[in-house]
Amino acid sequence: MDKKEVYRILDDAYFGDNPHEKELLDNLGKLLPSKGIFLDVGASLGQFSRRAASLMAQGQVIAIEADPLRFERLEKNFQEWSQEFPTISFKAIHAAVSDRSGRISFQTTNSNISGGLATPVHDRKETQGRKEAEWEVVEVPSLLIDDALDGACPDLVKMDIEGAEGVALKGATRLLNSGKPEFLIELHNFGSPDGISPIVATHDIMRRHGYRAIDFHGKTVFGRHIWRRFPLKFLGQRIRLRIGSLINRATQ
Q1: Range scoring the smallest mean pLDDT among 97-101, 165-169, 248-252
Q2: How far apart are CA 113 and CA 70, in angstroms?
Q3: C-alpha to C-alpha distance for 157 and 171, rounded to whole angstroms
Q4: Which of 118, 129, 160, 197 makes an SS bond possible with 186, Cβ 3.0 to 4.6 Å?
C-alpha cells in the first residue's frame, strides 16, 4: 500500500471526528495526573500520546514505536505537537520493546494493518484483511522498557504491541518493582514471540509484582492500589468473577 494512503487511513482512524477507541480516549484523564509522565508503548502515529498531552498541564510524553513507517509520522507529529503543547516535553523512540537490547526482527505489513514481534496471520485466527496483508520482516532496534526512560518513572504506561506484552514486561522490572506506574494494556490472544500466551504471561508477571487488574473501557488497567482508585469497579468485577466460579462449579 502507498505510504500516503496508509497515513490517510490512519489519520482518519486516529484523529478524525469519531476516532478509534474514542470511549477509552475520552476516559484517559481518569488515569493521568495533571503533571506527570506518560509512556506510550506501541504508539503508532501517537493517538494516545496526543490525548495525554492535551490532558496534562505539564509533563512529558515518551512514545516507542517499532514500525518504521509509523515512526516516521510519529516523529513528525511530535515536532508539531511540541508547538501546540509548549508545557509538554515530547520524546519519540524508534524501537521494539523486548526482554533484550540490540536488534530484533519485526513483522510489518506496509499498510494500515498493525505488525508486531509475534508470528503473523497463518498462526492466528484473524480478520481477512490481516490475512491478506503483505507481511515483511524488517530488523529494528530492540530495547528494554526500563532502558528507554533514563531513570524516569512514568505515572501511566499504555501498551498495545500485538501479542508481545509478556516479553516486553520482562524488560520493565525496575518500573514494576517501583510500584508507581499504572499500566493500561491491550491484551491479545494470539502468540507471543516466546510462544507463551501473552494474556497468561502478563497476568502472571503483574501478580508477582503486586498488581491487580480491572477492565477499563475495553482494555485492562493494572495497578498496585487499583481497588482504592476504582473501588466500585473493582468490587463489581470481583463479584462477577465469584458468581461465574460458583456457576461453573454447579454445572460440573
Answers
A1: 248-252
A2: 11
A3: 13
A4: 160
163 backbone φψ class: left, alpha, beta (φ>0; ψ -120 to 50)? left
- Helix, strand, coil shares of the chain, percent, nearest 5, are 40, 25, 35
**Beta-ladder partners of 36:** 59
CA torsion through residues 44, 190, 142, 90, sign: positive
> C-alpha distances in angstroms, 141 versus 34, 40, 64, 144?
32, 17, 11, 10
User: DSSP class of residue 147?
Assistant: G
| All three cell numbers of 120 | 503473523
Length of the chain measured in residues: 252
Amino acid at 63: A
- Separation CA 248–CA 225 (nearest Å): 29
Look at strands 102-108 and 156-159 and give their pairing.
Answer: unpaired
* Element of type H or E holding 157: strand 156-159
Q: Tens digit of pLDDT for each residue in 42-58?
A: 999 999 999 999 999 99
Confidence of residue 249 (pLDDT cuts 50, 70, 90): low
Per DSSP, the residues of 38-93 read EEEES-TTTHHHHHHHHH-SEEEEEEEE--HHHHHHHHHHHHHHHHH-TTEEEEEE
pTM over 0.70: yes
C-alpha cell at 178: 517501583
